[in-house]
Design goal:
The protein has 277 residues and is an alpha/beta fold. The chain has a domain at 75-93 and 117-276: Rossmann fold. It is 30% helix and 25% strand. The chain has eight helices and ten strands. A six-stranded mixed beta sheet has the order 6-7-8-3-9-10. It has a four-stranded antiparallel beta sheet with strand order 2-1-4-5, covered by helices on one side. Strand 7 (206-210), helix 7 (218-235) and strand 8 (238-242) form a beta-alpha-beta unit. It starts with 36 loop residues before the first helix and ends in a 9-residue tail after the last strand.
Length: 277
């Protein structure tokens, strides 16, 4: 997917100013989005209605999605699986408001993204969606805490508030002692934890993750999954995860299998509130 998380290029300094184990920690936020398992179940967070996506090269059309329809409830932890070229990353891009469908409708919290301008799409991404990528997409010249701050700059959050929020998230993912390290000074697992903190710093309703464990070893994968399920359970954050890893999909509430641009099957694994038990 490769698109930067922030929708402007401002530096964290523009206004003048771990350990190896990722264990679930209390999510330290100064305010709550107000989602509980009582009021989020049954509310649709993302809806795709007969979505198609066709890429054209010269006079040749390549259909990537062929009439995909699905609903993802608020607070749901959903995985999307399928072979390479099946359309799963294309669907993730559209659900994440990074691209528009050729036809059909995608609604994020009830807002039809086909009707939005580029600037409006950027605001949707910044205010409602967090992104986690396989390759981390951190900025090497910035420290960990500065990377986590980036989405807050687009919101014009004052420096002291964004630094406080970023620091708390790094502490929650076990990286308080490495907040001022640059990505090149961190392990792959630590870099992904910085990316997770960055995705969560805006308190998004939805987190889009494209192969988030693809560059991690099995131990770090399990630790990351523990943290994602803890965030989902305690905050009601909706996660949509593209993965090839069965260990990841088995930890989600629902698995959607895509083949040749269409939904092949769906499997419900757990109730949406099951992680609260």
């Amino acid at each position: 997917m490769g698109r930067p998380l922030a929708d402007n290029n401002e530096s964290p300094h523009s206004d003048g100013e771990g350990d190896s184990n990722l264990q679930p920690a209390p999510i330290m936020y100064s305010e709550s989005r107000g989602d509980t398992k009582m009021n989020r179940v049954g509310v649709v967070s993302v809806e795709a209605d007969q979505v198609t996506k066709v890429y054209s090269v010269g006079h040749v059309n390549y259909p990537a999605l062929r009439g995909v329809s699905l609903k993802i409830e608020r607070g749901e932890l959903t995985s999307i699986i399928g072979p390479s070229g099946s359309g799963k990353s294309t669907l993730l891009n559209i659900i994440g408001a990074l691209d528009r469908p050729t036809s059909g409708h995608v609604r994020i919290d009830g807002v039809d993204i086909r009707k939005l301008s580029d600037n409006q799409l950027a605001k949707i991404r910044n205010r409602k969606i967090g992104f986690i990528y396989q390759s981390f997409n951190l900025i090497n010249r910035l420290t960990a805490v500065e990377n986590v701050e980036m989405p807050l700059i687009a919101r014009k959050i004052p420096r002291n508030l964004r630094r406080d929020g970023a620091t708390k998230l790094l502490s929650a993912v076990g990286l308080a002692q490495k907040a001022h390290k640059r990505p090149t000074e961190l392990s792959g697992g630590e870099q992904q934890r910085v990316a997770v903190a960055r995705a969560l710093v805006t308190k998004p309703a939805i987190v889009i993750a494209d192969e988030p464990t693809g560059n991690l070893d099995s131990k770090t994968t399990r630790e990351l999954l523990n943290y994602i399920t803890e965030v989902n359970r305690t905050m009601g954050t909706t996660f949509v995860i593209v993965t090839h890893n069965p260990e990841v999909s088995e930890r989600t509430h629902r698995v959607i299998s895509i083949r040749d641009g269409m939904i092949e099957k769906e499997q419900r694994l757990q109730r949406i509130d099951s992680f609260a038990k």
